[in-house]
Amino acid sequence: MAQVQETTEPPNHMSATRVKTITAAMRGNPDWQAVLDLILKEFNCQTGTLHKWHELHAMLELICHRGIPRELMDKIERIPMGKGIAGAAAERMEPVSMCNLQSDTSGVARPKAKKTSVGGNIAVPIDMGGLLMGTLGIGKLEPYEFTPEETKDLLQIAAQIADHWVG
Prior knowledge:
It contains 5 helices and 6 strands, in the order ααββαβαβββα.
């Protein structure tokens, strides 16, 4: 049985600093790969994806990624609503997380997702007033449960991304 990494929630000032740092990286015309890389750094994660909702195709379309094996790229470039962790977050319009993708039996994660070697992961919807705009997903290579504070921060970051996509 895999051990879940013990976490302590960061003090509120650390959380606010993390969100401010990432928000600052979105000024002007952001480089979304650089923004994703900063998000991964701030959350100490090794994998991440940023998808934008494409209404015409009814799919999440990959904007940028980090740490995804090449053989999985065709599976994550376009994701239908409800499929996989990102698709579930989009469909439910709420965060979807797993402590350990490698041992998940819920059926949310697709079988090939285990090839990422990701343990703890979370995907949050990017929305503007209830209108789906995309998803942001991050993951760690070890089992990990994202804290409520981390989830709140990711939702705030997702809201900032939505502001830029609308703006």
